[in-house]
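As agreed, record copied across for absentees:
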Amino acid sequence: MNKSRLFKTFATLVLIFVFAYIFLKNNQATQTTQVSAFVDETKYEVYSGRQAYEYYRSILNESEKVLYDELKESYLQFRSTFSTTLDEIKSKELKNAFSAVILDHPEIFWIDSYSSIGDIFTGTINTNMVIRLRYTFTKEEALKIKEEIEPKYKEIIREAEKYRSDEKKVKYVHDKLIEISTYTGYTYSQKDKFQSFVSIFETGDTVCAGYSYGFKFIMDNLGIPSISVENIDSTDSSQSHIWNKVLLNGKWYNLDITWDAQLSNDNEVSYKYYLLDNNEFYKVHQKPNIIINE
């Protein structure tokens, strides 16, 4: 090897080392990146997340619950990164916690994704590195969206609260979401709004995610336990579906507002997929990975 090639090789190795050092330094976890909940609720500029019924958190393991809380607070606070307080975590645990936050907290409609440094062979996450968070909307954009949709969902909550029983509140919200909406397709550029509750409260043009997350958000505000239930098709994402369960008089019931909306018309609201037990509901719906007992 001549001197010129040797020098180029050496220079390349130095550059690789420098870039690697900068990358690791930028991703190094520090005490300041660890996250905790705001004591003062008014510091949350969009939503605080404190009204949400956290069913999916309840079924996580202890490490996943820590990650769940850290992810939730980081996204509520629009942090770009955070470092976990855990000494060791698995990639699957972080994925489970992330999915649980999305299902439990439809009000955090600006969540996009995350990235972390891990070992592909052991499936562990390097807890000395920060976890980076990505967003579909900036804080300013999220505030603007909230201001736009807030009058519509607050009116629904206000009207539902006039009913004395939870059963009548649930029926009112089911009917109202169908009344204000139209099931429709969307373009890729509209994905972020359609895959959240924004679409149903903004324009009324929506898909199953809008119905399900919109219903859960209203139930959270009414203090009625409800969850979104999803069936993800691993081979064709367009065939994935999401609906709801609601707890009434100590019993869980299924309802699919999307399918009822498609069967409804101006003269009559469909209740074909409304408050069904598991035996009836799963005759026509594919069972998700998590089945809640009645």
The two ends are 74 Å apart (CA to CA). The mean pLDDT is 86. The first helix runs from residue 3 to 27. The chain has two domains: 3-135, 145-281.
